[in-house]
Amino acid sequence: MIRKYKFLFIIMFIVSLMSLQIVDAKLRPNETLEKKVITIDPGHGGRDPGTYYGKLYEKDLNLAISKILKEKLEEKGATVYMIREDDSDLSSQWDKAKKRGDLYRRILKIQENKSDIYLSIHINWYNGSSMSGQEVLYHPINENNKVLADILLEQFKEDFNTKRRVKKTNLYLYSNTRVPGVLIECGFLSNPNERTLLQDETYQEKVAVSITKGVETYFKTIEESN
Fold first, then answer.
1. Mean pLDDT of the chain
2. DSSP characters for 38-59?
3. Is 30 helix (H, G, I), strand (E, B) or coil?
4. How far apart are CA 226 and CA 221, in angstroms?
């Protein structure tokens, strides 16, 4: 009789546990990025302003968009790390080449975070005001880099009707980071209209949401291909 009750108790416990898991899944239907680790790299910072227009610095816009992007990715269940969360760079006082030291430490952080992907956030510049739109660059060091780049650009086309295209880059950070990731140019600071939009929090959020949707599609694509 005691064994019978023990058996029934175990069955009831298992059923209850499964029910809790089902309820939990229903309560978290939007967490499509659960268990994904993403590192966001807000480009430049500290001594390095990036491109600029007067006192409007790329480094500040990169950080503003990255902070919103972090929130959007976390809402989807991702674990998100930021390379920087303030106006700083990662160079050391002992570095002879400050920029190279900064980029090297960014690579280390991406690896230390055990990232599934990294997203490097930047703002573009062109010698003239005609260029506009989002752009995604990748290095073929990882075969999934182009997959991610293509998906993100398609999402930008859908959300912003951008006419830009995916490009390759040989810049140091991207050619030395084996973790899948891309360089995202969120617009052109040299374009008067985009310069205004990029300072608007609503527009920054729209960019972050578009990137998040692209990231969701990327992971779904990779999982289906595997």
1. 90
2. EEEEE--BTTB--SEETTEEHH
3. coil
4. 9
